[in-house]
Amino acid sequence: MTEIYVDGDACPVKDEVYRVAERLKLGVFVVSNGSRPIRPPRFGNVRMITVDEGADKADDWIADNITAADVCVTSDIPLASRCLAKNARALSPYGKLWTPDNIGNALAGREIGRHLREIGATTGGPAPLTKADRSKFLSALDTMLQAALRS
Q1: Crossing angle of helices 103-118/77-85, nearest 10°?
Q2: In the CATH scheme, what is the code of domain 3-99+129-150?
Q3: In the chain, which residues have pLDDT < 70?
Q4: What is the pLDDT of residue 41?
Q5: What CA–CA distance (Å, rounded) separates 32 from 85?
Q6: Does the model's pTM come out above 0.85?
Q7: C-alpha dist (Å) from residue 138 to 13, 14, 95, 104, 133
């Protein structure tokens, strides 16, 4: 059975995930380290998972529990890579499909950005999520879930 795993601490599209999961009758795990409270949704198919605080604890929980039938929603590129390594599907909140073909370049770009920040360069953060981004995400999530349900 396909389930959706959400890297919950900084996910701006949780409400969209809840609505799609409710429509498709899928379970959702919203995983957080509890550093920022997440309001539980009104949907019965959503489980809030709080792990211990610490670097990558939520990522570890997701990577340990996700299966090849599942989808992970995350902007965390290393977590997306770990999910792909387990043959699961991964999607960013901006609607970017993470694949074995593009994850290596994304990891390399992340390392370059980290290095630039370490030497004092200003790299900026992600752009704010727009309505068009949310629409792209919803379309990509639906397509990804339909593919997961078929396989």
Answers
A1: 150
A2: 3.40.50
A3: 35-37, 115
A4: 79
A5: 22
A6: yes
A7: 9, 11, 7, 25, 9
C-alpha dist (Å) from residue 55 to 17, 24, 61, 151: 24, 33, 12, 33
Which residue, chain included where needed, has tokens 């995350």?
Answer: 74
User: How far is the CA of 64 from the CAs of 46, 58, 61, 67, 85, in angstroms?
Assistant: 19, 10, 5, 9, 11
**Structure-token pair, residue 36:** 């920022």
Q: Among residues 132, 145, 151, 110, which one has the least CA distance to residue 26? A: 145
**Listed residue (36, 28, 29) closest to 9, CA to CA:** 36
Note the pLDDT of residue 36: 67
Is 101 within 8 Å of 109 (Cβ atoms)? no
CA 10 to chain centre: 9
Residue 99 and residue 72: Cα distance in Å, rounded? 12
